[in-house]
Amino acid sequence: MAGSLGYAAGYATCILLALARAAEFAGRWHVPARDDVHTANADIAAGWSGAGLVSFVIVTGPMVTALALLTGWLLD
After folding, report:
1. Full residue range of the structural domain in which residue 48 is found
2. pLDDT digits (tens, 9 = 90+) for 16-38
3. Which of 7, 22, 35, 36 shows the smallest number of beta carbons within 10 Å?
């Protein structure tokens, strides 16, 4: 249970970090879309040491959640 809560807190932190990084380019908090005029020609990960970790956590979040739910269901 503590591991799940810790992962959820880390996931939320990574989402906020990604949105804050996007806000640096656009001047406001938003979720960049494909061909966004503010980020179309920008290398968002350049100069950001946490880009790899944040991207990994955000992309794997749904898979980790599904695995945790399945594991919890099977172990009950």
Report:
1. 2-75
2. 988 888 777 667 666 667 777 76
3. 35
CA-CA-CA-CA dihedral for 24, 30, 34, 35, to nearest 10:
-60
Which pair of tokens denotes residue 60? Answer: 């794997």
Nearest to 22 by CA among 56, 62, 51, 57: 51
Handedness of CA 27, 33, 59, 4 (dihedral sign): positive
- SS3 assignment, position 49: coil
Give the model confidence (pLDDT) of 39-61 as tens digits.
Answer: 666 676 777 888 888 889 889 98
Which one-letter amino acid corresponds to residue 62? P
Domain count, the chain: 1
**pTM score over 0.70:** no
